[in-house]
């Protein structure tokens, strides 16, 4: 038997094409899945519309949100908030942007509102904006996570399950807010160093390990105990935390009275961190 | 067989080295681990009972802790109701290790004996110990 290279390539290419096309066509023609999906979408859309007409009743009962008062914030308060949060969650301070872990951090107006930056706003330009996870309604990070390590809870918190995280960092690429940090190194190495210099651990909260992604969790562990988030407790005049789904909640009341900004709304992630300006 | 003397001697030496640990340890089994329950919190308990009964905890604590983890973290439900109907707050660091404040003499005892390295301690730690 003899077959020259040309003939071999022809046969191999043809059978690959048939194989690919065949299975693809088979999948497409298989009834059920696509139809069901379309039906679901349609139904979902209609349901959504109805919910809007009726008001908030048909929506979620709890939608947690954070309001940051940019008229009350100062540099000192921002630092106090960051310190409190990073202490509560045993976040190491590597002092090196390459390994940096941040749950809440400071940034300039120009970098925070890249889409609506107004270079003539001399007030906002000087303020320390606090950035954190936006706990989006449509979190892109949760969509891309291949192991469902990050997911959206019914109350709106985008939680991170470090037990499941495989460290692929898809979520970091997906998050438009840069809210996620990767543990390139063992955080305990740095924590031990800081403890030798007098840093206290929060013994009620674990550390992380090398190779997982972490971010702000809206203090879900404190909420479970009936406490307020750490940043709210540190500066209650700056940080306001509450339920957006409740018309009479503190946050809804403030949002009625004040002008607020949210980051990168055009992306459709529906962030739940508001900046009161 | 060529060089039978050398081969046989070599084989004997190999067998000797290979079997040495078995012969050396023969008749002296490693001591069974005795996890210690000697902590102030356990001593203060009126009835010395864990969340569930001891036999269940010994045999099933791994699956049990996994269920706790998923219930607390993924379902957001931090209360566990045990078979006796008592409510327990789900937390490895703040519930389990509150009584078992001697990780070294409790957890590590059996885990070292069975040569298992559970990854709990990559993140969690004994809040009573001074070390991470």
What's the topology here?
The complex is a heterodimer of chains A (277) and B (132).
Chain A: H1 5-29, H2 33-54, E1 64-69, H3 75-88, E2 104-107, H4 109-112, H5 122-125, E3 129-132, H6 140-144, E4 150-152, E5 158-160, H7 170-174, E6 181-182, H8 187-196, E7 213-214, H9 220-224, H10 230-234, E8 239-243, H11 250-257, E9 260-261, E10 273-276
Chain B: H1 4-25, H2 40-43, H3 54-73, E1 79-81, E2 87-89, H4 92-99, H5 107-113
Antiparallel strand pairs in B: 1-2
List keywords for this structure.
A: 277 residues, alpha+beta, Alpha-Beta Plaits, four-stranded mixed beta sheet, two-stranded antiparallel ribbon, 11 helices, 10 strands, B: mainly alpha, 5 helices, 5% strand
Report on the architecture of this protein.
Chain A has eleven helices and ten strands. Chain A has 277 residues and is an alpha+beta fold. In chain A, the strands form four sheets. A four-stranded mixed sheet of chain A has the order 8-1-10-9. A two-stranded antiparallel ribbon of chain A has the order 2-3. In chain A, strands 4-5 form a two-stranded antiparallel ribbon. Chain A is globular. Residues 41-56 of chain A have low confidence and may be disordered. The longest helix of chain B has 22 residues, at 4-25. Chain B contains five helices and two strands. The model of chain B has no long low-confidence stretch (mean pLDDT 92). The A-B interface holds A 151, 153-155, 159, 161-163, 188, 191-192, 195, 201, 203-209, 220, 224 and B 69, 72-74, 76, 78, 93-94, 119, 122-125, 127, 132.
């Amino acid at each position: 038997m003899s077959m020259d290279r040309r003939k071999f390539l022809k046969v191999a290419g043809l059978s690959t094409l048939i194989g690919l096309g065949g299975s693809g066509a088979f999948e497409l023609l298989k009834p059920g899945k696509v139809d069901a999906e379309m039906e679901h979408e349609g139904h979902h859309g209609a349901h959504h519309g109805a919910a809007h007409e009726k008001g908030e009743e048909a929506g979620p009962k709890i939608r947690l949100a954070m309001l940051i008062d940019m008229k009350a914030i100062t540099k000192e308060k921002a630092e106090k908030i960051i310190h409190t949060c990073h202490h509560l969650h045993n976040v190491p301070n590597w002092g090196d942007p390459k390994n940096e872990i941040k749950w809440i951090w400071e940034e300039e107006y120009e970098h925070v509102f890249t889409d609506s930056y107004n270079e003539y706003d001399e007030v906002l330009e000087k303020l320390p904006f606090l950035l954190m996870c936006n706990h989006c309604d449509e979190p892109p990070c949760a969509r891309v996570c291949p192991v469902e390590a990050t997911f959206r809870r019914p109350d709106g918190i985008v939680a991170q399950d470090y037990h499941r995280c495989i460290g692929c960092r898809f979520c970091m690429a997906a998050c438009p807010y840069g809210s996620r940090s990767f543990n390139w190194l063992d955080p305990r190495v740095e924590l031990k160093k800081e403890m030798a210099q007098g840093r206290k651990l929060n013994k009620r909260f674990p550390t992380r390990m090398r190779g997982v992604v972490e971010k702000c969790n809206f203090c879900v562990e404190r909420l479970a105990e009936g406490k307020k988030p750490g940043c709210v407790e540190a500066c209650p005049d700056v940080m306001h935390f509450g339920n957006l789904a409740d018309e009479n909640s503190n946050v809804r009341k403030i949002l009625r009275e004040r002008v607020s900004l949210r980051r990168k709304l055009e992306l459709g992630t529906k962030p739940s961190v508001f900046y009161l300006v | 067989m060529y060089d039978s003397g050398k081969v046989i001697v070599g084989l004997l030496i190999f067998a000797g080295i290979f079997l040495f640990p078995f012969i050396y340890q023969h008749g002296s089994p490693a001591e069974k681990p005795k996890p210690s329950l000697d902590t102030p919190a356990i001593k203060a308990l009126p009835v010395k009972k864990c969340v569930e009964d001891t036999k269940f905890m010994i045999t099933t604590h791994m699956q049990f802790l996994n269920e706790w983890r998923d219930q607390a973290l993924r379902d957001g439900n931090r209360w566990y109701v045990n078979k006796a109907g008592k409510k327990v707050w789900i937390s490895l660091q703040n519930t389990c290790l509150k009584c078992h404040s001697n990780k070294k003499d409790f957890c590590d005892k059996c885990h070292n004996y069975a040569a298992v390295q559970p990854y709990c301690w990559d993140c969690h730690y004994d809040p009573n110990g001074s070390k991470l």
